[in-house]
Amino acid sequence: MEAEKKAISLLSKLRNELQTDKPIIPLVEKFADTDIWNQYLEHQQSLVSESDGKPRWFYSPWLFVECYMYRRIHEAVIQSPPIDDFDVFKESKEQNFFESQESIIALGTHLQELLKTIEDLDENNLKNEFFKLLQISLWGNKCDLSLSSGNTSSQKTNIINSLEQFKPFILVNDMEHLWSLLSNRKKTRGKGTVSRVDIVLDNSGFELVTDFILADFLLSSKLATEVHFYGKTIPWFVSDTTIHDFNWLIEQVKHSNHKHLSKCGVDWENYIKMGRWVYHDHIFWTLPHEFCAMSQVAPDLYAELQKAHLILFKGDLNYRKLTGDRKWEFTIPFRQALNGFHPAPLCSIRTLKAEIQVGLQPGQGEQLTASDPSWLTTGKYGVFQFDGPL
Ligand SMILES: O=P(O)(O)OC[C@H]1O[C@](O)(CO)[C@@H](O)[C@@H]1O
Ligand SMILES: [Mn+2]
Prior knowledge:
Elements: H1 2-19, H2 34-47, H3 62-78, H4 90-99, H5 101-117, H6 123-140, H7 163-166, E1 170-173, H8 175-188, E2 196-200, H9 206-220, E3 226-231, H10 243-254, H11 259-274, E4 277-281, H12 294-297, H13 299-305, E5 310-314, H14 316-322, H15 334-338, E6 346-351, H16 364-371, E7 382-387
Parallel strand pairs: 1-7, 2-3, 2-5, 3-4, 5-6
Antiparallel strand pairs: 6-7
The structure holds 6-O-phosphono-beta-D-fructofuranose and manganese (II) ion.
Residues 144, 146, 202-203, 237, 239-240, 315, 317 line the site of manganese (II) ion.
């Protein structure tokens, strides 16, 4: 109880600092990333020209203060042993999973039915199934909890039946490039060679299930031979996946009463045991840095990503970090916004929740603003935005 009181008082202090636009202060508790964070704060400070020279909550870049807020929430917890491994968002993440049960069962059933005949599917049918599962993973990204301020944001209807209806809301659709890349590699790779797809995960709960279904399909269709996942080391943007969420979800699925779903769980656990699915942690994902800084700030992570044949970046926050969260013109090419970040061919799979979008056709953004003024922030629109081999 003493520890809880302490954490709550630290969180109240944080809320007060935020609401009254206090200066951003350094982190105090020693943790793996504390020094890098504090260096970054100093760098932000050097950019401020006002009289007292301190970055403040209301006047600093949103990406930076938003990341800082989640890092400070974590600091309040690690300063309060013995509850220092408490995940303040655990309950809402689990609730999202349970409330999406029907939809999850529908997806598990779809996958298991598909796997029965996957060996006999012709190229075209395989491609159609690939596109379906990509779109399911895209719309799965609607269900994050930070957009709904932590309120329930589960998937209640069977998403597979809605894919055609949602298609007009895909603003950039590079799915064909993903197919060409993976199917050409499948045809040309020699026996025993690897095709590796890396997925930089976003939200746990329903979205993570859609990512697992896609990852299972990639292996079962032989479009990939290995899938590597990247999660967050600390609770992040409410619903982001940690190793605990990753393992918890597979356990839940495995112990489901539904035979198709539990089969999924058994297979997924086996993939992990066999090293065909690999989970990676890295503190870089919970730093405020944009991805073009990765090769300098986290060269080991950059080198790991370079081993992939394709990297899928899930979600809105990853898109903001890919593009540096700048006020780009809507028509600027995606590659230009990536600013040199190119560990391997990559694709952002993201529903739009923040006011940034690049790579649109001339006039497309203006047209959307006229017909649907909040198009950038509601999660109603989505993109598959690809940046191919250099
Ligand atoms: O889970 P996602 O798709 O990264 O969405 C998180 C997004 O939600 C917000 O926290 C609130 O809109 C954004 O700052 C952030 O980009
Ligand atoms: Mn998220």
